[in-house]
Write a structure and sequence with these properties.
This protein has 369 residues and is an alpha/beta fold. The protein contains twelve helices and 14 strands. The chain binds pyridoxal-5'-phosphate (PLP).
Length: 369
């Protein structure tokens, strides 16, 4: 058997008629920039997430920049975040010449550990940026309480978690501003780059709309230093089609995660943990194993692709050497980066495929340790 990690081609074939129609409608109108499909999608994103404002933008990376620019993050400001994430989280902080301040993760959820945040707050701290890793929001009750106590803003990096919930609220409805990514392999992906920011604050929304088009207030009049951060009309049309099917896709991802959990329960690995207050969008199904390299090679031999999110925590990345962190500073993130491994995850994974993958784990030559 040869297993496809994300089944993007399969998904295109599934919705081909609708997707082709939506793409051709844009081609026919040639309204490539800020066409009506952009506002249509934004309005449908608002409905889906119950966030008051949804604003599309050029990527999940630019969504983080827009959020921080709207909150007026300045050079030298400190933003507390996790080192166990994709580089864009902290890279965008550094890009604005602010300082990422890392806090280790919770051993069970792999999200930022709120118990370790307060000791890192200084007079320069302006915001906390939790990441909803693998699709699950961080402990937002605890994070929001700390932010409120210290007068800090909260920006949720929800690149991986569109449609997830915490205390019944969607991930896009948490913090001051929440972001997402429509990168193709994300749970809700387009056919290139795309992203969005969400907020319940109308003034922040207006500012982000302006920042996304070079800080423009009206044509060729610029109120702020902004960016070229629009999402293409074609990509919005594509996401709008996929959004119609997304509730079903999310339910399927949940079902697959449950089936994986059942099938892998007695194998020698640590399964994903979802907090009872949260639901995950299951961007990844990541397990913790002892002999990862060997296991990955053996699974590959059997046609089972795996991935590592992420092999090196951010505090040990060369790009962040200037921050002065050392090996040993964030032990949970460090050990996880050596042990974590993501299994194929998409809404269309068949029962036969899940069984095949789980059997690969129980074969004698694949026994862990
Ligand atoms: C946690 C996190 N933040 C930000 C991003 C950036 O999103 P994009 O690739 O759309 O720029 C990603 C994408 O992988 C991500 O996983």
């Amino acid at each position: 058997m040869k297993i496809d990690f994300a089944k993007l081609q399969y998904q295109y074939q599934l919705y081909k008629t609708e997707l082709d129609e939506a793409i051709h409608a844009v081609l026919d109108k040639s309204n490539y920039i800020m066409g009506n499909e952009v506002t249509d999608l934004e309005s449908n994103l608002q409905t889906f997430t119950a966030a008051k404002q949804a604003i599309t933008c050029s990527s999940g990376t630019d969504a983080l920049l827009l959020a921080m620019m709207a909150l007026d993050i300045q050079p030298e400001d400190e933003i507390i975040t996790t080192p166990f994430t994709f580089i864009a989280t902290a890279e965008t902080i550094a890009f604005l010449k602010a300082k990422p301040v890392f806090v280790d993760i919770d051993e069970k959820t792999y999200n930022i550990d709120p118990r370790k945040i307060e000791e890192k707050i200084t007079s320069k701290t302006k915001a906390i940026m939790p990441v909803s890793l693998y699709g699950q929001p961080a402990d937002m009750d605890a994070i929001q309480a700390i932010a409120d106590k210290h007068g800090l803003k909260v920006i949720v990096d929800g690149a991986q978690s569109f449609g997830s919930t915490f205390n019944g609220k969607t991930d896009s409805n948490l913090g001051d501003i929440s972001t997402t990514s429509f990168f193709p392999a994300k749970p809700l992906g387009c056919f290139g780059d795309g992203g969005a920011v969400f907020t319940n604050d109308d003034a922040l929304a207006e500012k982000m709309k302006s920042l996304r088009v070079h800080g423009q207030s009206k044509r060729y009049h610029h109120q702020y230093i902004g960016m070229g951060g629009r999402m293409d009309t074609i990509q919005c049309a594509i996401v709008d089609v996929k959004l119609k099917h997304y509730a079903k896709d999310l339910a399927l991802r949940q079902e697959i995660a449950s089936k994986y959990t059942e099938a892998l329960e007695n194998k020698d690995l640590v399964l994903p943990f979802v907090d009872e207050k949260a639901t995950s969008a299951w961007a990844q199904f990541s397990v913790r194993v002892q002999n990862r390299d060997e296991l990955q090679a053996r699974l590959k031999e059997q046609g089972i692709p795996t991935a590592v999110h992420y092999p090196m925590p951010l505090h040990l990345q060369e790009a962040f050497a200037y921050l002065g962190y050392e090996k040993g500073d964030f032990l949970i993130s460090e050990s996880l980066s050596e042990e974590i491994m993501s299994l194929p995850m998409n809404p269309y994974l068949g029962d036969d495929e899940i069984e095949y993958i789980s059997k690969a784990f129980s074969m004698k030559k694949n026994i862990l340790k």
